[in-house]
Amino acid sequence: MKILVATTNPGKMEELSMLLGDSTGGIEWVSLRNFSRIPEVVEDGNTFAENARKKALSYAKASGLWTLADDSGLIIDALNGQPGVLSARFAADEYPGTDRKTLDKANYQKVLRMLKDVPDSQRTARFICHLCLADEKQILLEATGTVEGVIIDQPRGKNGFGYDPIFYIPLLNKTAAQMENHAKNRISHRGNAIRKLKPLLDALLVSQR
Ligand code: IMP
Description:
Layout lengths: L1 E4 L4 H11 L7 E4 L16 H16 L2 E11 L23 H15 L9 E11 L4 E13 L15 E3 L4 E2 L5 H7 L1 H19 L2
Parallel strand pairs: 1-2, 1-3
Antiparallel strand pairs: 3-4, 4-5, 5-6, 6-7
Helix pairs in contact: 1-5, 4-5
The structure holds inosinic acid.
Inosinic acid binds next to β3.
């Protein structure tokens, strides 16, 4: 059977389909790139779960396929959970219409400004990823993954994207931007959510036979 992954991002597609695999046999993972006529779903929920559910259900209805959607972002305790669901566009007002890389940098610089006077002990944060699988009528499966860290006061590292350069993982003594992709996948919020969803998906597929 075909399962649609609700993304046009080839990196995310590869990560999701590789980690979820095809242990029960017969799954073909396809991305939104195969469905260019489906209009983009607006992510206007108040939580990652709301956005992931809305995307999974909407794209499943539009495509007729089981659809896996995710939503993720950064929660900073000292900012009462900001940037949260606004992570991707936190500084977008200051840089309208800019490219992704510039906006990513503006986003983390805005965070650093807001945390300027916040002491180290209060700079705790986490990335959260919510995954949702739906068919045309209902949510079938969900899983949430997190990774805990601390926001440092200057960017470090060149890898990754988004807030990776300021997200320091004390256990590894590195920022997420100082990690190789495969190492980040092993500890990341997205990796953790996928590892939780996988046994549920395998069981669901077996029960459908
Ligand atoms: P999305 O759910 O992939 O659209 O992610 C939303 C936003 O959250 C991204 O644009 C980033 O700003 C931030 N984000 C999500 N995951 C990560 C990550 O692994 N590293 C850094 N930033 C992330």
